[in-house]
Amino acid sequence: SAWKLGYTGKGRIICSFDTGVDGAHRALNRSWKGNDGDSAAAWYDPLFHQTLPHPLNGTVSNNAHGTWTMGVMVGADSVSGDTTGVAPDAQWISAGVVDLPGASLLSAFEWAVDPDGDPNTLADVPDVINNSWGFTGRSCVDIFYTAVQNAEALGIVNIFAAGNEGSAPSSVRNPADGAFAIDDSLNLFSVGNVMETSDTISGSSSRGPSPCFGAIKPNVAAPGTGVRTTAPGNLFTFASGTSLAAPYVSGLVALLRQKNPNATVDQIKQALLASGRPLGYTAVPNNDIGWGLIDCVDALNALSAVNSVPNVKIYDFTHAPILPGDTVTGTIVLQNLGAPVSNVQLNITGSQPSLTVIDGLAVFGA
Fold first, then answer.
1. Is 101 exposed, middle or buried (0-12, 13-18, 19+ CB in 10 A)?
2. Could you tell me the CATH number of the domain that includes residue 95?
3. Which of 91, 113, 133, 237 could staple 33 via S-S, CB 3.0–4.6 A?
4. Is 328 a domain residue?
5. Range of the domain at 80
6. Integer distance in angstroms from the first to the last C-alpha of the chain?
7. Coil, helix or strand at residue 243
């Protein structure tokens, strides 16, 4: 239904951190961004330094994992027209760093925020990073939290698989468990696995709440059982797990960014939450399916085509009550994590008629 509305991911870029991708697969080769001649900005291979994407054998997972996940996001057979991807017209880039000793996931984040190595260009920056990986036995370890937040400050949405550790409470993997307050589970957006044949959450899908402040996890759920997708060697297969559910959401992010290229990370996440269907649950959100099973069209309808709110977050603000006659002053610090800008204007207005803003205009980088 979203495709019939014209939303296919055209003009958007999807990134994955995984076990490599069969870049020669006929359902994936057409959409690899490296076809523009800059392979280094489309394939990060810190171990083998090859210029073309290829599957990698991990210590635990098989070399098909990264090809599976990419097929769910962008798979479209240029010969037969067979489409497995949510965003078949999006381009993709990838880092072969998952389950590979000696390959750094943190270095992949550093690459993904500026794939072409030029901080003055933005056309190379992906709209979303799919993270179908995670760790057990290290709840709330924050080694990746800052990297994700830095990427999202640049406008790159990060989607995480919740994990396949089963229905025990707080079984969600790290870093998908990331949340810094009980009412702020948007920090690291995680996805559970719904079985489409029965519209129920899979018994293997990891549950919340997050061990970090008790926030609700997963954030949403998506189809992740018996998913048809691409496999190395121009093959197609069926695969299951939250590793397949997360790419559904990442593909949907590309559709949302096609509708509104300037949509902020928070606006996109709110649209995803708004699309959630409760299935058989009497109340959502909950720690089985989060805000519910995503719906592409509902998410698109929930996202405005134009922005009305700037991509600015207030990280800390505390102040005692303002008494009659008081004059309050404060300091505002802006940090630019993207391309150089100038003449940034900040205008402060008061929401109470009894307050008068004496000087509420500031210009940065004039």
1. exposed
2. 3.40.50.200
3. 91
4. no
5. 13-302
6. 46
7. helix
